[in-house]
Design brief:
Largest sheet: 4 strands, mixed
Number of strands: 6
Low-confidence stretches: 31-36
Radius of gyration: 18 Å
Shape: globular
Structural class: mainly alpha
Distance between the termini: 27 Å
Number of helices: 12
Length: 297
């Protein structure tokens, strides 16, 4: 298992860092259509880093999960290039989430060691979880370096669980994702020279959703609800706050604004202060998630 993890980490960080360096040196001419701020699109560097890192394990990933990931990548690319409408983007994400739900059809929620008897409804829960996290990570990518910082601790927690319980395929995938973020991160820290864009952020959200179901196992078919929620509490909390705020204000749910939690924190603490605060929250929540997982919650 150690050799596979080493391959995943080294190859992913080299590919991600190499492509990131190349994009920065070239001036990152592939610009984000939806955000004409002169910064380049670096999401593909993260995506390719992850894919190269998990190449030896791809036959074991599962066709449905792989197709779901490919769908999310395609939707992100189209949105970055063509600026899809919110409904077009949501439809594409729903396709990816549906494929993932089929691939994880046996995943059943477990609360404090007790299986929640949802029957076929667990497929719906899986679908909603993947769709929600795909969007949540994308929405929290509103400050330089924020999405990368917030995801590091949950991924580290998932890596610890996968290594502790001997999950080589899941471990490789998590290591590759961590390494790809490490390779890309320096170019994304404020002032960022490259942005994740929808391509990178949506793919990372999809991966976090799938990892939290596949790694936080309880028995053969269950997954631990509370640890999974804690790992995603920062992006999910921001998303729920944004939706509730817009509903109360009778504004379009899919509208863009700067009323997110991270924007409000940035107004008080500055961009770096807000990123540090939310990254710290993610670290604490991930530590608690690991403790709950270890305790059987």
């Amino acid at each position: 298992m150690t050799d596979r993890l080493l391959w995943a980490g080294v190859s992913a960080v080299l590919v991600s860092a190499g492509l990131t360096f190349g994009l920065v040196r070239l001036g990152a001419h592939w610009r984000l259509r939806a955000r004409r701020d002169g910064r380049g699109l670096g999401g593909p560097a993260v995506v390719l880093g992850v894919l190269v890192g998990i190449t030896p394990a791809l036959p074991e990933v599962g066709t449905w999960l792989a197709l779901g990931g490919a769908s999310i990548i395609l939707v992100g690319l189209l949105d970055d290039l063509l600026d899809l409408s919110p409904w077009q983007k949501l439809l594409g994400q729903a396709v990816g989430a549906s494929l993932a739900a089929v691939g994880l059809a046996q995943a059943a929620p477990v609360l404090f060691g007790v299986n929640v008897p949802l029957g076929t409804g667990r497929i719906v829960v899986t679908f909603l979880w993947v769709l929600a996290l795909t969007n949540a990570v994308n929405l929290i990518d509103g400050l330089d370096g924020l999405a990368v910082g917030v995801l590091l601790a949950p991924l580290a927690c998932l890596l610890a669980v996968s290594v502790r319980h001997g999950m080589p395929v899941e471990g490789m995938a998590v290591v590759a994702t961590l390494a790809a973020l490490v390779g890309f991160g320096p170019a994304n820290v404020g002032p960022a020279r490259l942005l994740l864009g929808d391509t990178g952020a949506e793919f990372l959200g999809y991966l976090l959703a799938v990892f939290s179901l596949a790694v936080l196992r309880r028995g053969e078919t269950g997954w631990a609800v509370f640890p999974a929620v804690l790992l995603a509490v920062v992006p999910l909390g921001d998303t729920l706050f944004a939706v509730a705020r817009r509903v109360v204000a009778k504004k379009p749910v899919f509208g863009r604004d700067e009323g997110h939690i991270h924007h409000r924190l940035a107004a008080r603490l500055g961009t770096r202060g807000a990123v540090a605060a939310l990254t710290g929250m993610s670290l604490v929540a991930s530590g608690l998630a690991f403790l709950l997982w270890s305790a059987g919650a």
